[in-house]
Design goal:
- This protein has two helices and 49 strands.
- The longest helix has 8 residues.
- With 709 residues, it is mostly beta strands.
- Strands 29, 30, 31, 33, 38, 39, 40 and 42 form an eight-stranded antiparallel β-sheet that branches.
- The termini are far apart.
- It has five domains: 135 residues, Immunoglobulin-like; 76 residues, Immunoglobulins (Immunoglobulin-like), CATH 2.60.40; 81 residues, Immunoglobulins (Immunoglobulin-like); 87 residues, Immunoglobulin-like; 222 residues, Sandwich (Jelly Rolls).
């Protein structure tokens, strides 16, 4: 083989004779283009290799021969000559030389620090990684895959170290100016660059909802799911077959080909953002057609009984009766004004959002099965959204009043505990234990509590003024069974907000440490929801096999040594349990109510800090200090919030306001300044039961006879 190698420059000729498909499948955004048989592709690539050994590793040409029949079980070669450059805007640009395959390379998979990062089609030999931390080393590898799903070994690794962020006011260091260096081993190369300062994004996207498999044949099928959400933005989805990563896509559909007939597969999808944060996986199990199974060509029945539920100025809830199918209904396709929304769901209800106020819409639904058979559309149902709500807010003595037509009529608040007010009403001295019992704010519990909450006067309140909070030292300070008004009002839904301050990280000593537990039966054999410092669990079967959503409290916005606002929303009719810490979205976990306790309301078993270890010195937390304040419980996410930001999307400091009275045209609320103490201007936000909220805050005004506080 004759090879001419110049310093850092070479040329490689490849002959590709195949039509490419994706790595065992294709995403609608990453689908490999088909190449005409017999077409020659030439690529000239620059790189740092200077040795004869490196030159010898480059083939003169790669002859690709079409298969004459049979199964392709030959994997591509590993991509080689991987290189990278880091830029000052927080990105790393990767490139590599093409791999070879007996049929053709369908896709390349990029790995970062040993984890799958992204996949690109086989005609692309470059990828840009975004949102990296400064002064951090990242290790990249690349692997290739063909249309039959055969994967190559990973390439040699390439290490990129981003430089320390440049402080404001200092000159930025130019990115990678002659900064590439060859490490001691020839399998690793490193570059350096400067990054501008930025706050790291550590929040994971939500799980991809409503994952379904349809259009099944003996050798193929299509996965489809609804869009995940993220605090910054979802950039793609990882797709797994039988727990093995097979590729990624920026769309919400992925096609699998070259599957075995009459075979069972488990498929999973995980969302990721530009910073590399990944959601938990959503999984579906299905099988290809073939063998003794007849081909399914019968569509499900048409969805019947389509009706509307809650209607607001921006959303409509549509409900229907379940369709039937010989092999089972896989999901429902949603239509708005006769056009598919592109969304699917496995539930028998759906909330259409982002609608215009006072506008007529028609909605319809189609059912489909795993074979891709679709029913005809249901009879369309017409509905008009309510007119835009016009509300005004102003200060009154001791609080805030909102006037105008409210988006809902029922007072959602069931429980409010302002610790200072509760302490004043108790008549107890400073330092007394918080009383518990049938006639108290909190019920008695059989749970062993080694460190009870006490009333404590302190200057470390959220406003910085002297006041009273709940405080305890030890490893199990909890408040059990809040005695809120009318527990039977909420069988499936609940919203809880409270302020929590730990002196040390709630994960410092490990174990499963609960912030809150909700259940519908105290024996733990019904629905059982626990939010801990490391995960969210939901267990419904009697043998207690919980569904788990992982995510550390400190990675989801929590900070030890300061006041943190915790929020939990439970809606088992959707179903999901969602959490926020200091306004940062955390878990979004599926949770279905136990059928054995369908008529038992969801209740709060405990709230506080329940260490999952034992009450001895080997499990720590004996000197941990915990404080809590302002506990709010409602039968839905409906509430009124106060903020110092004029728009909801930019709010960072927020306070939920307690309800004094609620009428269709007037809401009177108590005043809670908390972290907003001293704010020059405040705005009011009304959150509806479906979670929608006015985008622009209502600036508080003062009545003619009332001075602003």
């Amino acid at each position: 083989m004759a090879v001419a190698v110049q310093r850092s420059v070479w040329a490689v000729e490849m002959l590709v004779l195949a039509s490419l498909a994706a790595c065992g499948g294709s995403g609608n955004g990453d689908e490999a283009p088909a190449l005409q048989q017999g077409r020659a592709v030439s690529a000239a690539v620059q790189g740092p290799d200077t040795t004869q050994a490196a030159a010898a590793a480059i083939p003169d040409a790669v002859a690709v021969v079409p298969l004459q029949g049979g199964v392709d079980d030959i994997a591509p070669s590993a991509p080689h000559s991987v290189s990278a450059s880091a830029t000052a805007d927080g990105r790393v640009a990767l490139s590599w030389l093409p791999a070879s395959d007996n049929v053709g390379v369908a896709s390349y998979h990029v790995w970062r620090d040993g984890q799958p990062l992204h996949s690109v089609n086989g005609s692309t030999t470059a990828y840009t990684d975004s949102s990296l931390a400064s002064a951090t080393t990242y290790v990249y590898r690349v692997s290739a895959a063909d249309a039959a799903g055969n994967s190559s070994p990973q390439s040699v690794e390439y290490s990129v170290t981003t430089a320390k962020a440049v402080p404001a006011g200092e000159n930025e260091v130019p990115a990678a100016q002659g900064g590439e260096r060859i490490a001691a081993t020839t399998s690793v190369r490193t570059v350096q660059a400067a990054l501008v300062p930025r706050e790291p994004d550590t929040s994971s996207p939500t799980n991809p909802p409503d994952l379904v498999a349809h259009s099944r044949t003996e050798s193929s099928l299509v996965l489809q799911w609804r869009e995940s959400t993220d605090n910054v933005g979802v950039v793609g989805y990882d797709v797994f077959k039988n727990a093995v990563w097979v590729g990624g896509t920026s769309g919400r559909e992925f096609s699998f080909r070259n599957l075995a007939p009459a075979s069972r597969y488990e498929f999973s999808v995980r969302a990721y953002d530009a910073a590399g944060n990944r959601s938990a996986a959503t999984t579906v199990t299905t099988a290809t057609l073939g063998g003794a199974s007849p081909v399914d060509i019968v569509a499900p029945t048409i969805p019947a009984g389509v009706t509307t539920g809650a209607v607001t100025s921006s959303s409509v809830v549509v409900q229907w009766k379940a369709s039937s199918d010989a092999t089972g209904v896989a999901g429902y396709e949603l239509y708005q004004n006769g056009i598919s929304t592109g969304e699917v769901t496995r539930q028998t209800s759906y909330t259409y959002g982002d609608l215009a106020a006072g506008t007529a819409y028609s909605f319809a639904v189609k059912a489909f099965d795993a074979a891709g058979n679709k029913s005809a559309a249901s009879a369309p149902i017409s509905v008009r959204t309510t007119p835009a709500t016009v509300l005004t807010a102003r200060w009154i003595a001791g609080g805030v009043v909102i006037e105008g037509r409210n988006p809902w009529n029922e007072n959602p608040m069931m429980f409010w505990d302002d610790v200072a007010t509760a302490f004043a009403a108790s008549g107890l001295p400073d330092g007394a234990e918080v009383p518990a019992g049938a006639d108290k704010l909190y019920g008695a519990s059989s749970t062993v509590v080694a460190s009870r909450f006490k009333y404590q006067r302190t200057s470390e309140t959220r406003s910085g003024e002297a006041g009273v909070v709940y405080a305890a030292t030890g490893h199990k300070p909890v408040l059990s069974y809040p005695n809120y008004n009318g527990p039977a009002r909420t069988f499936n839904k609940m919203y809880v907000s409270w302020w929590y301050k730990p002196s040390v990280s709630p994960g410092a000593e490990g174990a499963s440490n609960k912030f809150i537990r909700l259940w519908d039966n105290g024996n733990g054999y019904g629905t059982r929801i626990s939010w801990t410092q490391m995960h969210m669990t939901c267990a419904v079967p009697a043998d207690y096999k919980p569904e788990v959503s992982w995510g550390n409290w400190w990675d989801k916005g929590g900070v030890a040594g300061r006041w943190n606002r915790h929020e939990v929303e439970v809606d088992l009719s959707v179903p999901h349990v969602r959490t926020w810490v200091n306004g940062v979205a955390g878990h979004n976990h599926p949770c279905v109510k136990s059928a054995d306790y369908a008529n038992s309301p969801i209740r709060i078993g405990l709230i506080g800090f329940d260490h999952g270890g034992y009450a001895d010195n080997t499990h720590g937390y004996d000197t941990m200090k915990t404080a809590m304040d302002d506990i709010y419980i409602a039968n839905s996410p409906a509430r009124v919030e106060l903020s110092d930001s004029p728009t909801w999307s930019t709010t960072s400091n927020r306070e939920v306001l307690p309800v004094k009275s609620w009428a269709p045209n007037r809401i009177e609320l108590g005043q809670v300044r908390g972290v907003l103490k001293g704010a020059a201007k405040l705005y009011v936000y009304v959150v509806a039961p479906d979670g929608s909220v006015n985008a622009n805050g209502m600036a508080l005004s003062c009545g003619s006879s009332t001075a602003c506080p």
